[in-house]
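stuck on this fold:
=====
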Amino acid sequence: SRIKLGDVTPHNIKQLKRLNQVIFPVNYNDKFCKDVLEVAKPALNHVLNICEKDGTFDNIYLKFGSEIIETKKNYSKRIQPADAHLLQKNLKVPSGQNADVQKTDN
């Protein structure tokens, strides 16, 4: 089964902080959590726009609008689930395919 997490909003930022405390060995301060709301998505959109305009990138690896292309079983020794996913977002649409078909909304 897959778990899908929604967007980070001012209403669930405390849950994000708590998840990070439980899952990851690093504690993030309140400023980091605030920055996630204000900076992370616009910054990523900026990078995506630059890559798409450049035209030399076929794909990039991340979560935002990406699909799982590979799963590394038992990747983590301290985090459950232990599997890690390699994510890819295609920037170039194969010829003959509609661009809307290639987009995902993760």
About this structure: The chain has one domain: 13-102. Helices lie at 13-23, 30-54, 99-102. The first helix runs from residue 13 to 23. Residues 13 and 34 are 8 Å apart (CA to CA).
